[in-house]
Amino acid sequence: MSRIIEEFEQICIEKKDSTAFIYQAKKGLVKKSFSKLYEDVNRVIMELKNLNALKGDRILVFTPPSYELVVFMLACMKLGISVMYVDIWAGAKLISDTLKKYKADYIAVSKKSSFLRLGFASIRKIKKLIFIDRKYVKESAVAAKFVNENIEEDCTALLTMTSGSTGVPKIALRTHKDLYEQLELVKSNMGKEEEQVVLTTAFIYSFANILKGFCTVLSGVNLSLPFDFLLNKKLEKFRNVPVTTIMTSPDFCFRTKNYYLSLKTLYVGGAILNINEARAIKEKYKSADIVYIYGATECNLIAKTKLDAYINHLQNKKIACLGTKALGVDIKNNDKNEIMVSSKAILRQYIAGERKNVFVDEAGTFWHKTGDAGRYTDEGLYYLGRFDVYAIKNSKKVHTNPIEQSLTIDFETIKKCAFFYYNGKNRLYIESDKEPDFTSLRSYMLERGFDNVDIHRIRKLPCDKKHHTKIDYRRLKLRLR
């Protein structure tokens, strides 16, 4: 039996009158209790059964995160239906390639996304349409209790696509067991308060909050929106909600206001911060306990540290220390200083991309190679940079995050920078509002063994389309072709 389903059933019984979700609707803020959530899930199950959706079917979800999507995904899990979750940023080619290898029986859309799907030829071919934001069947039609299917742990629960910001996009499969282990990893590394009101911009964490019995605030914030005031306009509606915890990315921290007087803990991760970025987050959330997270799709939590400790380490040693390993995780380096991680939560199944990021040791332990360079010691995990991003020093490759960190610390005018080797030269791109002192910069680099560095000032470094604080080195290299 699927442990996710079992725990969902149990938590809905234990916390029945407690608030499970708070979200914005046309009439204002809506609160849903755990018992109401349970009823809504069973109504959707009835609808799916009426559509003849069966255990083993695959449903492509093409809709923004919402309460209705949470309900829909839980209903699918209880029926043993696989949910293929795609987002527009995935792109037409990746979606098309996925559907060739993992064909969908249905497509679930919202009113807003139903027309948008017509722009994707591969999605138009799926004829069986489900509207997840339609009104549920009438209250009087609710069955007393849905009898669960016998869903095995190895049944596929979820398929997700990575943005490919650090290489070739991957299409990951999560079985019920995989998803449960990842949610358990999140739960075990959250605070121990009995009651939390959690605002999260990482949709998958909503399920961890459910199993923990916490209240989840679905803000509806879409960080791809170009104007910050649009984001804050949505968030301001939650000003009076007693949010105690936020789980989010640096992008959210930089682009939105802190409306939450009850905030106790901020979990932030998704990009390696420089000193300016870390200080900006600390200043905005000065009254909160800030935990900085390092993770990956394959293992959503790897290491964590207090942001204060991270800042102090940068100031004193000019190298990023990502803290100690998360509970339930093991870390080591291979002989090339690549960061490797092992955990029960590691994802192992893909339907796209060659698996070059797997290592099984002599004891049979499965390790995921992160693609990041680092050094793991008793003090913690030191980050050196992306494994495929390097400079040349004395005819040898060196990873560049430490020099990038040093530059932002030692030169006040530098907001952010990217240092890498390409086409026979070391290249340095500086993000700065003011013209930097190029003579001082060249001397600084020469003192550290890097001569003849090609230096450019750029107003805004190109960043990953999903994590806007993560430098996109590939786009920088394209500028040099």
Q: What does this molecule look like?
A:
- This protein is an alpha/beta fold.
- The protein has 15 helices and 27 strands.
- It has a 9-stranded mixed beta sheet with strand order 2-1-10-9-11-12-13-14-16.
- A hairpin with a 4-residue loop joins strand 17 (329-333) and strand 18 (338-343).
- Helix 1 crosses helix 2, helix 2 (34-50) packs across helix 3 (67-79) and helix 7 crosses helix 8.
- It starts with a helix and ends with a helix.
- The model is unreliable at 137-141 (pLDDT under 50).
Describe the structure in brief.
With 481 residues, the protein is an alpha/beta fold.
SSE blueprint and pairings:
Elements: H1 3-14, E1 19-25, E2 28-33, H2 34-50, E3 58-62, H3 67-79, E4 82-85, H4 92-101, E5 106-109, H5 111-116, H6 121-124, E6 129-131, E7 156-161, E8 171-175, H7 176-188, E9 197-200, H8 205-212, E10 215-218, H9 228-235, E11 245-248, H10 250-255, E12 265-269, H11 275-284, E13 289-294, E14 303-306, H12 307-317, E15 320-321, E16 324-325, E17 329-333, E18 338-343, E19 349-352, E20 358-360, E21 366-377, E22 380-386, E23 390-393, E24 396-399, H13 401-410, E25 416-422, E26 425-431, H14 438-447, E27 454-458, H15 473-479
Parallel strand pairs: 1-10, 3-4, 3-5, 4-7, 5-6, 9-10, 9-11, 11-12, 12-13, 26-27
Antiparallel strand pairs: 1-2, 7-8, 8-19, 13-14, 14-16, 15-22, 17-18, 18-21, 20-21, 21-22, 23-24, 25-26
Helix pairs in contact: 1-2, 2-3, 7-8, 11-12
